[in-house]
Design brief:
This protein is α/β, with parallel strands linked by helices. The protein has a single domain (about 5-235, about 285-330), classed as TIM Barrel. Helices cover about 40% and strands about 15% of the residues. It has helices spanning about 5-10, 25-40, 65-70, 90-105, 120-125, 140-150, 175-185, 200-210, 235-240, 245-255, 270-280, 290-305, 315-330, and strands at about 10-15, 45-50, 80-85, 110-115, 170-175, 190, 225-230, 285, 305-310. Strands 1-2-3-4-5-6-7-9 form an 8-stranded parallel barrel, surrounded by 8 helices. The radius of gyration is 19 Å and the shape is globular. It starts with a helix and ends in a 13-residue tail after the last helix. About 50% of the residues are buried.
Length: about 350
């Protein structure tokens, strides 16, 4: 029997530690860890957390701290950042943080890096960012960080300890062609944020593959794409559940971020807002097991990515668990048959 592309593709999880209406950050962190423990058993490859700031309802701001929380409560799944917004931090600090994480949980930590602020103008200002840089300093910051994570050189004035010589895989993340080109030049794996910005996905993947230079890290291109997925027993239920992330996008468009809202029968939006939300949610796969199966197979056939990182944003934690479980069942994943990615 010939296996499907989906069954051969590693599946991972992207989590933002969403706070839901009526809940708080502590509950969100409990749910994050519980989700990680479940998906570990269901054969998922990685569990990544994203750095965001000044977004009410998103509690993953202290990303390195939360990575440690999740890694400490799991045993085998890789845990990492999707991503750390490097221009927000001194490279030395990130090298020390991830060197520490790697020392605590050897062979299980990923360092995904982005160049956006992970928040609005006010957040960027509060973080002390150069507001005129617009991410232009990212390549230099990346070079500095990689230097701190490399084995210590004779005469090196500043050493990241822990950090120097740490074998922490670095990924470049992006929603445009900038990081795709840089990842290709450096021979690093590339992950595209199509879970919220799908428009440039194909162009970025094509650029990355065309310009890829083999490195000591990779001998061929390795790509991951984010994709929103909601699986449910009926299509009607799945579409109803999807109104929660749609409300979240809508509130961002209106500049009124907040906690996750329960699903609703009908969304109160104007045509412009509906179109904007649909554009952000265009890559989403929502429906029954068969709809999700065909949707993911089609996405993989079109993009030919090596790995999927799934973002499931629903109000009820048990429902979110069931959606991830259904996707694992659809893909034929299990602890015993886990398909580990080539990056370890």
């Amino acid at each position: 029997m010939i296996s499907s592309r989906l069954s051969r593709t590693p599946l991972s999880v992207l989590d933002l530690a969403h706070v839901r209406q009526g809940g708080d950050a502590a509950e969100a962190f409990r749910h994050t860890l519980d989700l990680a423990q479940h998906v570990e058993r269901w054969g998922y490859e990685r569990f990544w957390l994203a750095e965001h700031h000044n977004i009410s309802g998103v509690a993953s701001a202290a990303t390195s701290v939360l990575i440690g929380h999740v890694a400490g409560g799991t045993k085998t799944i890789r845990v990492g950042s999707g991503g750390i917004m490097l221009p927000n931090h001194a490279p030395l600090v990130i090298a020390e943080q991830f060197g520490t994480l790697e020392a605590l949980y050897p062979g299980r930590i990923d360092l995904g890096l982005g160049r956006a602020p992970g928040g609005d103008y006010a957040a960027a200002r509060a973080l002390g960012k150069d507001l005129k840089a617009q991410g232009d300093d990212f390549p230099a910051l990346l070079e500095e960080l990689r230097g701190f994570l490399a084995p210590r050189r004779p005469g090196q004035a500043v050493t990241a300890y822990p950090g120097a010589g740490a074998n922490v895989p670095i990924w470049l993340l992006g929603s445009s062609e900038f990081s795709a080109a840089l990842a290709a030049e450096l021979g690093l794996p590339f992950a595209f944020a199509s879970h919220f910005q799908p428009d440039n996905l194909m162009a970025a993947l094509e650029l990355y593959r065309e310009r890829f230079r083999p490195s000591e890290i990779l001998d061929r291109p390795y790509t991951m794409a984010g994709i929103p997925v909601i699986a449910a027993e009926t299509d009607q239920e799945a579409q109803w559940l999807a109104t929660t992330p749609q409300q979240a996008f809508l509130n961002l468009i209106r500049n009124h971020p907040g906690p996750l809202m329960p699903p609703v029968k009908k969304l109160d939006w104007n045509p412009f807002e509906e179109s904007a939300v649909a554009s952000r949610f265009r890559a989403a796969v929502v429906g029954t097991a068969e709809i999700v199966r065909s949707g993911l197979e089609l996405f993989l056939a079109e993009t030919k990515v090596d790995e999927l990182i799934i973002a499931t944003t629903v109000y009820d934690h048990a429902v979110r668990l069931r959606s991830y479980e259904m996707v694992a069942e659809i893909a034929g994943k299990s602890v015993e048959q886990k398909a580990f990615a080539s990056l370890g």
